[in-house]
Write a structure and sequence with these properties.
alpha/beta; Rossmann fold; six-stranded mixed β-sheet; four-stranded antiparallel β-sheet; 9 helices; 10 strands; globular; binds adenosine-5'-triphosphate; binds magnesium ion
């Protein structure tokens, strides 16, 4: 049996007493790419935030390997290093260069060797097409470049699982591609990823499995070729049709 790196068992999450995630069960294999799709407000970000222990949960358990993230005395700082998260807003420090942004946490939190971390950072910057930008400051970069730096910063912490929450949502359309291509490239390295995105073509290309979430419940889990051609529920069909309509609107514009 393939190794499960992440296990979510009977997860329940509430806000102000209202249940927003209902009995979520999901296991992710090492190297697997799971894309979470669903209408706005269905709980996609909440699910990722629970996995990264940014939110207390109200039932169920989440494990990375055999370590329970949701345990009362779980060492959160250590667990968070094993789960990297990239958000829509890249949150780089404006007073630090690209390189210093990237090496900050590996040096301060992981106490790693500066030379080794710097070499790794430079290698990654090269790979994501930012070879010449190590000594620039965030204000000198485009949104797409900043987001690629944010991805490299997370990767340099060597997370076992990478969570990406709508990382292209704030970007101009021409920059979306450059960031998604970096993520596609990463998926070839067997990086385990949970991705929330509204980019359907990207989702179809990168996913091993699609998880379709509606009102805090998993409605369907399917391989992308099934989900995008013969979704199991009417709700999923409607959801996909709303994107076709978006495509038509874009073509007309
Ligand atoms: N901090 C919070 N306090 C109270 N309610 C919240 C909080 N964060 C999210 N919610 C609610 O939980 C539900 C799920 O929100 P979530 O942000 O996870 O949705 P989403 O699927 O990521 O939506 P979107 O596609 O718009 O990003 C929504 O009803 C939202 O209003
Ligand atoms: Mg969200």
């Amino acid at each position: 049996m393939a190794e499960k790196i992440l296990r979510i068992e009977n997860l329940i999450k509430k806000y102000s007493g209202v249940t927003k995630l209902h009995d979520i069960n999901l296991s992710v294999e090492k190297g697997e790419v799971v894309v979470i799709l669903g209408p706005s407000g269905c709980g996609k970000s909440t699910l990722l935030r629970c996995i990264n222990a940014l939110e207390p949960v109200h039932g169920g358990k989440i494990f990375i390997d055999d370590d329970e993230i949701t345990a009362k005395n779980a060492p959160l700082s250590l667990l968070r290093q094993r789960i990297g998260m990239v958000f829509q807003s890249y949150d780089l420090f404006s007073h630090l260069s690209v390189l210093d942004n990237i090496i900050l946490a590996p040096l301060k939190v992981q106490k790693r060797n500066k030379k080794e971390v710097t070499e790794e950072a430079l290698k990654w910057l090269e790979r994501v097409g930012l070879g010449g930008k190590a000594h620039k400051y965030p204000r000198q970069l485009s949104g797409g470049e900043k987001q690629r730096v944010a991805i490299v910063r997370t990767l340099c912490m060597h997370p076992e699982v990478l969570l990406l929450d709508e990382i292209t949502a704030a970007l101009d359309p021409e920059m979306v591609h450059e960031v998604l291509n970096v993520v596609l490239d990463l998926s070839k390295d067997d990086t385990t990823m949970l991705i929330v995105t509204h980019e359907m073509r990207f989702a179809r290309a990168i996913a091993d499995r699609i998880v379709f979430l509606v009102e805090g419940k998993i409605e369907e889990i399917s391989p992308p070729e099934v989900f995008f051609t013969t979704p199991k529920t009417e709700r999923a069909k409607q959801f996909l049709e709303s994107f076709e309509y978006e495509d038509v609107k874009k073509e007309k514009a």
